[in-house]
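Intended use. Records like the one below are meant for learning the mapping from a protein sequence to its folded structure. Do not use them to infer anything beyond what is encoded.
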Amino acid sequence: MTEIEKETGMTDAECEYWDEYFTNDDNPVHLGPNLMKLGIKPGSTHKYLPLLKELDRDVLEYLCNQAAATHKTGMQVINDLIREKLAVTV
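Structure written out for the chain above:
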């Protein structure tokens, strides 16, 4: 049994198949934005995800409502709000 099989329970061929499937741009499954293309380095998200868990319930509800109303993701709504604040302070 290879290390990959021990870690994933899949063969090397299965891992390669799924890697190709999920990284192919023609794939109908969208897992979210490519963080690397957004400039977020691997391993750095652990610093930011705990911040999102600390959001107040009403803030989270606002984000969800704004995201639904504007057809954006919650993160896009956060980005817009922060850009507005930055524009005011400049």
